[in-house]
Design goal:
The protein has 3 helices and no strands. The protein is mainly α. The longest helix has 18 residues.
């Protein structure tokens, strides 16, 4: 029997799934610096401490 996932992992994944496309709509002047800092903070928070796993899952062509 498979164990159900903990809500924190599901919610974090949902948040990161929303955050990545949302950053594409930031103003051009701030898109690179602010987006980079925001995404770094979000992936550092990742409860599995495998933020790159989320990044590879959400946007495999990313150069981050």
């Amino acid at each position: 029997m498979a164990r159900p996932e903990m809500p924190i992992f599901t919610r974090t994944f949902d948040f990161l799934s929303w955050l990545l496309p949302a950053t594409n709509h930031f103003p051009r002047a701030h898109r690179h610096t602010f987006t980079q800092r925001l995404l770094n903070a979000a992936f550092d928070y990742s409860p599995q401490s495998g933020g790159t796993r989320f990044l590879n899952c959400l946007c495999p062509e990313s150069e981050m």
